[in-house]
Write a structure and sequence with these properties.
CATH topology of the largest domain: Rossmann fold
Number of strands: 16
Strand content: 5-15%
Number of helices: 20
CATH superfamily of the largest domain: P-loop containing nucleotide triphosphate hydrolases
Distance between the termini: 76 Å
Shape: elongated
Number of domains: 3
Helix content: 40-55%
CATH class of the largest domain: Alpha Beta
Structural class: alpha/beta
Strand order of the largest sheet: 2-1-3-4-5
Largest sheet: 5 strands, parallel
Length: 493
């Protein structure tokens, strides 16, 4: 059989039992070698990882070194039954779902098993498809519960960045994208800094999407939005009694990316625990005796001055240095004014579509106000302004661009915005000026500035207005006895 046929057959097998099984790690605990080998050969083509244990003692040792999504457990074993072993493991911390296999089952055993936390029962003898179906069913439910939990968490923090993407063509944003590309294939922690609203979470999501973890969970946690007395439980989990447990956000994010925003707000005790997790890649939920190994990438963000917080004794120096392997500072919007046109246009299209309301005209006057404003709230403030304006049907009367830029400086900034926009359109047209002029809705470019041909009128002017102005200019040249106007001649100032 060729490699292509084998790959096709393997893919069809995965499709038959669902994607959850293919991403799962499974531990088989059975004293019979023949049963262990049968289960291993059945599960290995369909699972990410399969391990074996010949007795409960060996299984406990394996669980101390690795995390498993599912345990297939035999009940009748020498020295200790599966149910007895399961009860012991629940007390120290067991974080896997259980399928029990047995040839001796009665109603009392089944009730005891369910009370002990067994997810499913499979009676011996069984066929390969029976155990695969049972495993797929258990894992589908497990990952569905995880996804629902993460979805509720995302909705609870009302994260707008979940729907966003890193926008802009300014040099500062291009530099951020270049750094993200370098970091994407690496497990290195990254610290995002910058003012509120500059897009730190969006940059973190972009980095996750560019990495080989893109199909795995991305869990964003706003450390300032969780009560200090609850954040340790939310992050690391809780084990209470033999059966009650709460899997923390770190465990739910396993194999994926954990993004901790406003990390400067963490309490000293949580900082100490987090430092240990970063160093050992293991967590110990509250009340548990066993640590859980994790494969997790950490991303951090803050708008606080962490070196100053360290100097003041408000943030652990060792944790800061452990986080600060690579730092990316997100530029404020006032330093990337050339991106305002793209951002405002995309936000206008977005809110007009989702709200079912007409888009507003981003004319010269509006662009001048947008470029004159300093945007203390950065991209988030611009987004909110566009949304509010679409709802109102007009731009707020009190929005007059009250920032530091004014007069000639503001006009020059607007011209720079226009030039950037023209360059971007030219790039998208592969240098075809005629096609770029068509997209910009202006005549062929008539003046060259900064390496590009500038349209005789600013972007956004209507065709009717452009036609009137061209007619007046041509009439003036005729009266002066000038030569016939040509699109490549320079326009009078």
């Amino acid at each position: 059989m060729s490699q292509v046929n084998r790959d096709t057959e393997a893919m069809s097998k995965h499709d038959a039992y669902g994607e959850s099984l293919s991403h799962a790690s499974v531990l088989i605990v059975d004293d019979e070698p023949g049963m262990r080998n049968f289960l291993s050969k059945t599960l290995e083509p369909h699972c990410k990882r399969v391990a074996q244990a010949a007795c409960p003692k060996d299984a406990a040792i394996i669980l101390d070194t690795a995390h498993f999504d599912l345990i297939i457990l035999d009940n009748i074993m020498p020295g200790c039954t599966g149910l007895e072993w399961l009860s012991q493991q629940r007390k120290v911390g067991l974080y896997a779902d259980i399928i029990m296999i047995t040839a001796y089952a009665d109603l009392e055993t089944a009730i005891t098993a369910l009370r002990s936390g067994v997810t499913d029962f499979v009676l011996k003898p069984f066929r390969a498809n029976q155990i695969l179906t049972a495993a797929a069913r258990v894992l589908d439910r497990k990952f569905l519960q995880r996804d629902n939990y993460l979805l509720r968490h995302a909705l609870s923090v009302e994260s707008e960045a979940a729907r966003g993407r890193l926008l802009g063509a300014s040099a500062s944003i291009q530099s951020v994208r270049t750094m993200l590309t370098k970091l994407a294939p690496l497990p290195t922690p990254v610290l995002f800094t910058g003012q509120s609203g500059t897009g730190k979470e969006i940059a973190a999501r972009t980095l996750h999407g560019m990495s080989n973890r893109a199909s795995k969970p991305f869990v964003a946690v706003n450390c300032a939005a969780i009560a200090p007395d609850r954040i340790a439980q939310e992050l690391f989990g809780v084990v209470d009694g033999d059966t009650s447990r709460h899997d923390g956000l770190l465990l739910h994010a396993n194999d994926g990316t954990l993004f901790l925003d406003e990390v400067a707000q963490l309490s000293e005790s949580v900082q100490a625990t987090l430092l240990r997790v970063l160093e050992d890649h293991r967590i110990r939920p509250s009340g548990a005796e066993r640590e859980i190994p994790l494969t997790l990438r950490f991303l951090f963000a803050t708008n606080a001055d962490l070196p100053a917080a360290v100097a003041a004794g408000k943030f652990r120096a060792d944790l800061f240095h452990r986080m600060n392997v690579v730092a990316i500072e997100m530029p404020p919007l006032r330093d990337r004014t050339e991106d305002v046109v793209e951002l405002a246009t995309l936000f206008m299209d977005h809110f007009s579509r989702i709200l079912g309301l007409p888009a507003l005209d981003l004319n010269d006057a509006v662009l001048l106000k947008l470029s004159r404003y300093d945007w203390p709230g950065n991209v988030r403030e611009l987004r909110n302004l566009i949304e509010r304006s679409v709802i109102l049907g007009h731009f707020p009367d009190d929005f007059a661009g009250t920032g530091q830029r004014s007069g000639v400086e503001a006009i020059e900034t607007l011209e720079l915005v226009e030039q950037r926009h023209i360059v971007n359109v030219l790039d998208s047209c592969n240098g075809n000026r005629a096609e770029a002029a068509r997209r910009l809705r202006v005549p062929r470019f008539a003046e060259r500035r900064h390496g590009v041909r500038k349209p005789p009128l600013r972007v956004g002017r209507s065709r009717e207005r452009s036609h009137r102005l061209r007619t007046r200019r041509r009439a003036g040249r005729s009266q002066q006895g000038s030569r016939t106007w040509h699109p490549h001649h320079r326009h009078p100032r």
